[in-house]
Amino acid sequence: MPSLTATLQAKEKFIAFTVVGDPDLDHTVEYVVAMAQAGADVVELGIAFSDPSADGPTILSADQRALDNGITTEQVFATVARIRQQTDVPLVFLTYTNIVFKYGYAEFLAQMQAHDVQGLILPDMPIEEQTAFLPLAQQYGRDLIQLVTSKSYDRLPAILQNASGFVYVVSSLGITGTRQTLSNEANEIIAQIRQYSDIPVGVGFGISQVEHARQFPTANAIIVGSAIVKIIAEHPYDATPYLTQFITAMKEAQHAQS
Amino acid sequence: MTTNDHRYFGQYGGQFIPELLMPAVTEVADAFHHYQHDAAFQAELKDLFINYANRPSLLYHAKNMSADLGGAQIYLKREDLNHTGAHKINNVLGQALIAKKMGKTRLIAETGAGQHGVATATAAALFDMECEIFMGKEDTDRQALNVYRMEMLGAKVNAVTTGTQVLKDAVNATFQDWTKRIDDTFYVLGSAVGPYPFPEMVKYFQSVISAEAREQFLYQTGRLPDAVLACVGGGSNAIGSFANFIDDSEVKLIGVEAAGKGVDTNQTAATMTRGSVGIFHGMKSQFLQSSDGQIDPVYSISAGLDYPGVGPEHAYLRDLDRAQYVPITDDEAVAAFDYIAQQEGIIAAIESSHAIAYAMKLAPTMRPDQQIMVTLSGRGDKDVAAIARYKGVDLHE
Ligand SMILES: Cc1ncc(COP(=O)(O)O)c(C=O)c1O
C-alpha cells in the first residue's frame, strides 16, 4: 500500500469525503467503493460527532443522521474492514478529538493500523495540543494531518514540523459547506508552505463545482466534502451514479486545467 | 497535559480549537495578560464596577432564613443587585474593555438564560460596539423577555436551531461565527469554560465576588465563612465566589449543579455527578457524554445551568478534594425559589435557587455560630413566568 505522500505526490488528485453511517453502513461501503472506482485517489471517512465545531449545516446534518442510526466507533472500524475487502484506496479519518480520546489514543491508532487507515484529521487538535498524540501516531505509523489557514503564516514552521502525509489547506475562513465562489487565497497559502516544505497539499472547505476544481493548480489535491454529502442526502439509497458522475466531472475539470 | 503547562489546571484545560481560531485566542491571551498589569485599565474597570455596575454588592445576613432553618447563619452575596441583574456583568465589563482596547468593534456571545447576552448587549451599547448574541431556539422561547431586552439594547439575537437548540449549541454557533470574522470581532465567553485563556480570564474578572466577600465577612463578623455555596453552570459565579477562599483550607467550597429531574434520569445537567473526562468546547474537563464520546443532551429547568460540561478548574478542585459538587433537582430549586421569596422578600434567579436549596439542606446540620455564604448570582424576574408554567399556573399579561 503506497503512503499518502506517495499517492498525492503528483498533481490533480481528488480526495472525497463521506460520513460513515449516512444513510447507513451498507451504503457507506457501496459509496466508498464507487467513489474509488470513479477516480477518488483518497477517501476521507467522517466519524460522526454530536457537535462538529468546524462543520457547517450540511455535514452536521449527516453526522446527525449517522448518530440517529446509532453508529458507534466500533462499528466504524467494522465498516472499514468491509471496505478493505473491496478496495485498497488510501483512507483517512476525519473526526473530533473527543471521539479518539474516549476510545483511547493508542487503541484508536492501533485500530487504524490494523484496518490500514493511513491518516487522521482532527480539526480541534491544534499543534499546541499534539504533544501527547503525535508521538503515538508516529509509533503506529499513522499521519496526523495538519490544517493550515491564511491566519497560520507565523505558525507555519511549527505546523510543518508536525506534518506528515499531506497538509490540509483551508481555502476560506469559517466552516465547511459548499460555496458559490471561492477566493484564490489557498494558492497564496500553498506558496507560503512551499517556502518550507515539499509535502503534498490538499485544498478543502467549500470546493463543490467544476470551476473550483480548476482554481488551485498548485495544489496536489482538492478535498470535496459537503458537495458529496449533499448528493448522498438527496439520493440516500441510490447515490452511486450521481457520485460517479460528479467525481468524473470534477476529475476531468482538474485535468483540463493543465 | 502536565501541571506545569500554564494553560492547564492539573490534567484539565488546554486549547482544543481549530487552527483557524488559535491566532485569535492567542491575541486575546496576550491582551489579557497585558491589561491585567496595566494600571490605567485597572482604574477604568474599577470605575465601571463602582459607578456603572453598582459594586461592591451587598453581603446580606439572611436572618429570617437562618432562624427558620435553625442552624448556621446564612449570608447572601447579592450579585442580583448588580446592574443587569446578575454576576455576568463583572466578566462582561472586563472582557469588553479588553476588546475595546484591542481595537475590536464587534462583540459576540452565547447565552443560555439570557443574562450573559443582556450583559454583553449592555456593554456593547455602553462602549458603542456592534453586538450579536447566539441563543438556542429552546431558550429564546423560554426566556422571551430577555431576547426582547437584548434587542432593545441594540443587539441582534440569533436563535440557534442546530443540535439540541440550547446553551451548548449556542456556544458552537458563537465559535463558528468567530471563525468567519476574526479581525473585527471579540468573543465574550460567558462562563469559566472554553479554551485557555477564557477559564483563567473569566475567573479573574469574577474574583471580585470573593475579594469583596472576604473583606465583608471579616468586617461584619470578624471571621471567614465556614462554607461558600454557589450554583454551577459552566462555573463562573462559583469560581469567582471560591477564588479568594481557595487558600483558606478551613472554608468549605461547594458547587451546586442542576440535577433536572434527577441524577438517575436522562433529564439532568449534573456534570460532576454523572460525567466523565472528555474534550469539548476547547477544553479538557468533565462532560456528560456517551461511552463513545458523543455529548449528551442535557436538561434543567434553569436555562443557565443547562450545560453538559463544567469549567476545567472546577474539575481540578474536585480532584484535589478542595471543592465538592452536589446536585439539586428542579423540584428542590423551585421550592427554594418560593422559600427565599417568602422568607426574605427576594426573588432569586432559578439558577441561584439551586444554591439556596443546598443551603437549606446544609444549614440545619451546622451550629448557629457557624456561617454560610451563598452567592445569589442573579435576580429571578426573568424566571417568574417559567415558574408559573412549571406549577401549571396560567398567566395572562
Ligand atoms: C443568574 C445566573 N446564575 C448562574 C448562571 C450559571 O453560570 P455560571 O455557572 O457561569 O455562573 C447563569 C447563567 O446564565 C445565570 O444567569
From TrEMBL, chain A:
GO terms for cellular component: cytosol. Signal peptide: none annotated. One of its GO terms (molecular function) is tryptophan synthase activity. Keywords: Amino-acid biosynthesis, Aromatic amino acid biosynthesis, Lyase, Tryptophan biosynthesis. The active site is at 44 (proton acceptor), 55 (proton acceptor). NCBIfam families: trpA. This is Tryptophan synthase alpha chain. It comes from Periweissella fabalis.
From TrEMBL, chain B:
Its EC number is 4.2.1.20. The modification N6-(pyridoxal phosphate)lysine is found at residue 88. GO terms for cellular component: cytoplasm. Pathway: Amino-acid biosynthesis; L-tryptophan biosynthesis; L-tryptophan from chorismate: step 5/5. Signal peptide: none annotated. Its cofactor is pyridoxal 5'-phosphate. Residues 52-378 form the Tryptophan synthase beta chain-like PALP domain. Keywords: Amino-acid biosynthesis, Aromatic amino acid biosynthesis, Lyase, Pyridoxal phosphate, Tryptophan biosynthesis. The keyword Amino-acid biosynthesis applies. CDD domains: Trp-synth_B (cd06446). InterPro entries: Trp_synth_b_CS (IPR006653), Trp_synth_beta (IPR006654), Trp_synth_beta/beta-like (IPR023026), TrpB-like_PALP (IPR001926), TrpB-like_PALP_sf (IPR036052). It catalyses: (1S,2R)-1-C-(indol-3-yl)glycerol 3-phosphate + L-serine = D-glyceraldehyde 3-phosphate + L-tryptophan + H2O. PROSITE patterns: TRP_SYNTHASE_BETA. It is an enzyme of class 4 (lyase). GO terms for molecular function: tryptophan synthase activity. The keyword Electron transport does not apply. Belongs to the TrpB family. PANTHER family: TRYPTOPHAN SYNTHASE, TRYPTOPHAN SYNTHASE-RELATED. The beta subunit is responsible for the synthesis of L-tryptophan from indole and L-serine. Tetramer of two alpha and two beta chains. This is Tryptophan synthase beta chain. It comes from Periweissella fabalis.
